[in-house]
Fold this sequence. Notes:
Blueprint: E1 10-14, H1 19-37, E2 39-43, H2 49-57, H3 61-64, E3 67-70, H4 77-82
Parallel strand pairs: 1-2, 2-3
Amino acid sequence: TLGLVPDERVFLVLGGSRGAHSINRALSGVLEQVLELAQVVHLSGELDWAWVAERRAALPAALQTRYRAFPYLHEEMGSALAA
């Protein structure tokens, strides 16, 4: 499972290949504001994964629990789309 809180809004963020980089940077600029409104499932891609993980670690603890970041998903992709 993705560890999401049931019955709360979920914002799924994903991009493909190198296009994910610009999406990752854009999300970073508004991440804390988005997390105030919804849980976020973020599929960053492999290239930005280390940077995204550092960004998550820098969030306030209360917001870290609302941010689920992954380089990619396989089996859990259905759960992410259904959320």
